[in-house]
Design goal:
6 helices; Rossmann fold; 144 residues; alpha/beta
């Protein structure tokens, strides 16, 4: 499983019991150090975390080295995913993609691009910030 824009690894670590291996990628080095520590604290030896821009790290060589995923989880910043990453996800054709977003507008844009190979299977908005207009939106995509 790939956890892209993984932050401190919380989502990947949470679902780790369902995965053989977790590969996390995040731009912020301090977050990656925290993700490694969180994996250690959770006795998770099947996780590896990499610091750097998802666009720079997630290339053909990286995926060849770490394997084709069954699941991709992506939790990008408000700007959404870079178009190159969307194309790479389409190329990888993982059976399941879970897209967590704090910006439904950019998520909708990216979902339109992913529609080439994926269908929306489930949608779950989450009101993490009551009494504001901000929501998190979780979408499960399945390969057509």
């Amino acid at each position: 499983m790939y956890d892209l824009y993984c932050g401190t690894g919380s989502i990947g670590i949470f679902v780790s019991k369902l995965a053989k291996k977790i590969i996390g990628v995040e731009m912020i080095e301090a977050a990656i150090e925290d993700a490694k520590e969180n994996a250690t604290l959770n006795n998770l030896s099947s996780a590896a975390f990499f610091a750097g821009d998802v666009i720079d790290i997630c290339n053909d060589e990286f995926f060849a080295e770490h394997g084709k995923p069954d699941v991709i989880i992506t939790d990008p910043p408000r700007a959404g995913m870079h178009e190159k990453l969307v194309k790479k996800i389409l190329d990888m054709a993982a059976p399941t993609v879970v897209y967590v977003s704090c910006n439904p507008a950019t998520q909708a844009r990216d979902l339109l691009l992913l529609d080439e190979k994926y269908i929306v299977a489930k949608v779950q908005p989450v009101d993490m910030f009551p009494h504001t207009h901000h929501i998190e939106n979780v979408v499960q995509l399945k390969l057509r």
